[in-house]
Here is the input.
Amino acid sequence: MSDHRPMTFPAAARLSANHLEAIAPVALKSGIDNETRRRRVPLGLHTSPKVFMRQSLALLSALMVAALMFGGPAMAIEQPRYTVATKDGDYEIRLYEPYVVAEVVVSGDQGASVQKGFRKLAGYIFGGNAGNAKISMTAPVSQQPAGEKIAMTSPVSQSPSGEGRWTVRFMMPSAYTLQNLPRPNDPDIRFRSEPGREMAVVRFSGVAREPNYLERSKDLRAWASKKGLTLKGDAALAQYDPPWTLWFMRRNEVQIEISR
Here is the structure.
């Protein structure tokens, strides 16, 4: 078994969303400007295929630098604690420790809902609460279908297709409990204690859109069936990286609770 503990990073890496949003354009501009100054050709005002190729490579390099320096773990100060009990390629059985989440239910398709939910929850942790407290960002951002009846301690069944309802959640840093979290200004945000539980997980890269979520959910259920596992509840889609992370470097997961 391997034990996964929270990942921590130096203060310089603990950037707010506003800082992170500002970094990528600066990195891009720097990479393009360096190449443009070297060639003394204004970007977009040339006809030479060789110069165009050099500037395109400079743009791609700047994107990769921004993703490597500021994507993924730099944003993920802390992640849920878990132990890997079984690993089979991209599939795992994990034993999670309890943690607290902030969550909000939003309407729309999968892509629109995660954006709506993320904005609400990010507003909360970046000061939209009593006392304007700043709360560290964690990973992953988790998303799960929600029905008309919402159980506070377990997911409920509903098809994720179409204009449905989704629960989007952030894990709260381990320093917080249900008793000491600041009250949100947004009344739609609620807190819940996630109990320790056993999860079946499949990991994948690329863009986490609804077709990928549905396909990976089906694959995970088929793998669990072969292993003799009984799953319960809906599949959760977990996304670990900011949107500018290059698609092949992204970490996404589908997670379903195991019933024992």
The first helix runs from residue 17 to 39. The chain has four helices and ten strands.
